């Protein structure tokens, strides 16, 4: 597996990553595990773009210094900044479509174990009022027992390969909480800003490198059979 570290635009990288996914599918590239550190960006879904409040939501992003971007797949609006980590995993397989839900379940459990290992109790499941709500979101438990969304996941498949992406908030949830609150208000979608969390809420001393090391260790222990089971 090729391990990469990348600093760049999530929006600009989408098409190039899709091209690489097709090369992985054809066998021209080996499987890839990539760590990216995004700039401040708000990824909207297509339903958001069709929402009557979209223009106001886009303006709210710009007020907070976040770049609005409409992604071609995925759910509702999700925000990232430089203290978030995007982990993309591109893998070749014969039948990527049939394993879609199994991948969500397996990677959700994997990320919950990663957070547990870092010192933040975690589980898989949608929180009431979370942003970009998803059945396989990964939430952690902050001091005091508050459950907060820490990891969101998404995936894309092409013939012969899948691309699984996880976005984890390492630290500084406050700017994300503020922009998401204004964006969801503009879209007239209920969202509880208290559900916007980070690993640092439970582990104040956590660093980007700590999370990367934990992910690498988890993948090293992830036996090849796990990939076959999800393919």
Labels describing this entry:
single chain; 231 residues; alpha+beta; seven-stranded mixed beta sheet; three-stranded mixed beta sheet; 37% helix; 26% strand
SSE map:
Elements lengths: L1 E6 L2 H17 L5 E6 L3 E4 L1 H4 L4 H10 L3 E4 L7 E3 L3 E9 L7 H19 L3 E3 L13 E4 L5 E12 L2 E9 L3 H15 L20 H13 L3 H7 L1
Helix pairs in contact: 3-5, 4-6
Give a brief outline of the structure.
By secondary structure, this protein is an alpha+beta fold. It has helices at 10-26, 46-49, 54-63, 100-118, 173-187, 208-220, 224-230, and strands at residues 2-7, 32-37, 41-44, 67-70, 78-80, 84-92, 122-124, 138-141, 147-158, 161-169.
SSE order, as H and E?
Answer: EHEEHHEEEHEEEEHHH
Number of helices: 7
- Residues in helix, %: 25-40%
Shape: globular
Give the overall average pLDDT.
92
Number of strands: 10
Which stretches of 5+ consecutive residues score pLDDT under 50? none
For the sheet with most strands, the description reads: 7 strands, mixed
Task: Give the radius of gyration.
Answer: 17 Å
Structural class designation = alpha+beta
Instruction: Bin the strand percentage.
Output: 25-35%
Terminal residue distance:
16 Å
Order of strands across the biggest sheet? 1-2-6-10-9-8-7
What does this protein structure show overall?
The protein has helices at 10-26, 46-49, 54-63, 100-118, 173-187, 208-220, 224-230, and strands spanning 2-7, 32-37, 41-44, 67-70, 78-80, 84-92, 122-124, 138-141, 147-158, 161-169. With 231 residues, the protein is of the alpha+beta class. Strands 1-2-6-10-9-8-7 form a seven-stranded mixed sheet, sandwiched between helices. The chain has a three-stranded mixed sheet with strand order 4-3-5. β1 (2-7), α1 and β2 (32-37) form a beta-alpha-beta unit. α3 runs antiparallel to α5 and α4 packs across α6 (208-220). The longest helix has 19 residues, at 100-118. The mean pLDDT is 92.
């Amino acid at each position: 597996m090729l391990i990469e570290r990348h600093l760049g635009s999530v929006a600009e990288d989408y098409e190039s990553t899709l091209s690489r996914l097709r090369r992985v599918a054809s066998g021209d590239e080996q499987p890839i595990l990539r760590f990216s550190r995004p700039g401040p960006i708000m990824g909207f879904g297509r339903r958001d773009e069709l929402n009557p409040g979209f223009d106001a939501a886009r303006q709210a992003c710009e007020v907070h210094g976040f770049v609005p971007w409409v992604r071609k797949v995925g759910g509702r609006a999700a925000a990232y900044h430089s203290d978030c980590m995007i982990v993309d995993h591109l893998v070749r397989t014969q039948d990527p479509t049939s394993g879609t839900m199994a991948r969500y379940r397996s990677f959700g459990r994997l990320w919950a174990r990663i957070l547990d290992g870092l010192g933040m109790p975690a589980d898989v499941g949608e929180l009431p009022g979370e942003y970009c709500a998803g059945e396989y979101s990964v939430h952690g438990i902050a001091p005091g027992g508050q459950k907060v969304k820490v990891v969101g996941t998404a995936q894309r498949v092409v013939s012969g390969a899948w691309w699984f992406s996880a976005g984890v908030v390492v630290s500084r949830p406050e700017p994300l909480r503020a922009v998401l609150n204004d964006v969801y208000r503009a879209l007239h979608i209920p969202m509880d800003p208290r559900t916007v969390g980070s690993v640092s809420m439970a582990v104040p001393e956590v660093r980007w490198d700590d999370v990367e090391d934990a992910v690498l260790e988890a993948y090293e222990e992830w036996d090849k059979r796990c990939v076959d089971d999800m393919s």
